[in-house]
Amino acid sequence: MFKILIADPISESGLTVFQSHNGDFKVDVQSKLSLEDLKKAAADVDAIIVRSETKITAEVLASSKKVKIVGRAGVGVDNIDVTAASRQGVIVVNVPGGNTISAAEHTVAMILALSRNIPQANASLKAGEWKRSQFTGTELQGKTLGLIGLGRIGREVSKRCQSFGMNVMGFDPYTTEEYAKNFNIKLSTLEEIYAQADYITVHVPLNDTTRHMFNAETLKKLKPSVRLINCARGGIIDEQALADAIKSGHVKGAAIDVFEEEPPKKDNPLLALPNVIVTPHLGASTEEAQVKVAQELAETLRDFFLTGAVRNAVNLPALDAEQFKELEPYLLLCENLGKFVTQMVGAPIQSLQIEFSGEISLKNTTPLTLATLKGFLTPILGAKVNVVNAPHLAKERDLKWTETKTNQTADYTSLITLRVASGSNKYSVSGTLLAKNSPRIVAIDGLSVDVVPEGTMVLYTNVDKPGVIGYVGTVLGKNNINIAAMQVGRKSSGEAITVVNVDADVPEGVLKQIREFQGITLVKCVKL
């Protein structure tokens, strides 16, 4: 049974997903926990679900030895220490599309409210005043909207604003001009948007690049009387700098749904300005969005635990159930190839090259590379290695790895080859899947073999001459070690490599006896 901690309130639709699998999941709902209580609650759970309030820090993650996945019922994951989670091998997932429409509609509502002074006029009239002339607004038709970020929400905002007759410019470093044209958006530079846009709205995550991207210097570059809208993340706009720009008259007004500190302090400079509209982080706060994100996140966690499928991971390539099923035998093969080459070399390895040849090169090979790294590091670091933290652990050990692809392969439909360098020495191992997805090691250091990569194997190289196989068999037999299979690879130069699958552990003393035979140059025991 998997235990799920829900640390922030979510819609009942999410709970229903887990309740329909009562035998598989136990749900613990606890919200508004102190740090110490959160650490205690997380100590023995398999997964944690949060929204925006609870922070999953490195300290919280360290308190839980079992947690495998943390889910954010929303888009942003800035309240989760993704780096710490990755180091610990914890998958972090979100729901990138669940609140798209809600956030886009709220952004457009803010643009309209800002243009027509709706909150100010409402407050004035309810106070018994009738001051129509003070609330003269601005039409959107013919105005230019600058979108910073052309993801799902940005595109939906563009669609709605174009219906008002607005011209839309957009900036996104990961978007092509052709892609933007598909949505009738003019792909532009930031400088062009700053100079031309009458309204600017941001739809980007908060990171080192976007933090305070609108600061005192940036705001000076904006077109006079521009209006600025932020329904994305607090911290993208320097709040004091924006307040100063509004007071000076350079910025006409602003609509802010998110703040650097939430809730904002009473002395936040934006709260005192009449031409600034504020809402308490309502972008995703619709009944429909809460149902969607809760249900989709719960289904993501359910599928992860019951099928192994990973969707919407921010620190791991996502695989749906069908993709996972297709790649699963290759994942096991890659992990075992990684384990094999590490034990075969038995010395510090400086570089690892992973080659995908044939049909497998046309697949999403990133999960296979991660599985290889996991296998490669497991004999060194043990059970703490998984596909999430393997890249971080490899970097800590100064391992350099590369991935190459070619759709050409001579003898197999698909072939995966690992090439490693240890000092001046180089080694390689190749594997493939045969009929019915049966994994095989088919080459070791260029010598052809046909080895099932499982269990315990004794591997030795020798001068190809009579008596070697008999001697090794005798040594193993005298030590009550049964031989399950044996494969020999030979070169015309007289060099041979033999892999012996055995049914028991092979003590170092037995390996020493094998090394004593004249002509045997290398003996290794590999466990998969």
Key attributes of the depicted protein:
528 residues; alpha/beta; seven-stranded parallel β-sheet; six-stranded mixed β-sheet; 34% helix; elongated
Summarize the structure in words.
The protein is α/β, with parallel strands linked by helices and 528 residues long. The protein is 34% helix and 24% strand. The protein is built from 17 helices and 22 strands. It has helices spanning 12-19, 35-42, 58-63, 82-88, 100-116, 118-126, 152-162, 177-181, 190-196, 216-221, 239-247, 287-307, 321-345, 366-381, 390-396, 468-478, 508-515; strands spanning 2-6, 25-29, 47-50, 69-72, 91-93, 144-148, 167-171, 186-187, 199-202, 226-230, 251-256, 276-278, 351-358, 400-406, 414-422, 425-434, 438-444, 447-451, 456-463, 483-490, 495-502, 520-527. The strands form four sheets. It has a seven-stranded parallel sheet, sandwiched between helices. A six-stranded mixed sheet has the order 14-13-15-16-17-18, with helices on one face. A five-stranded parallel sheet has the order 2-1-3-4-5. Strand 7, helix 8 and strand 8 (186-187) form a beta-alpha-beta unit. Helix 13 (321-345) crosses helix 14 (366-381) and helix 14 (366-381) crosses helix 15. The longest helix has 25 residues, at 321-345. It is elongated. The two termini are 28 Å apart. The model has no long low-confidence stretch (mean pLDDT 92).
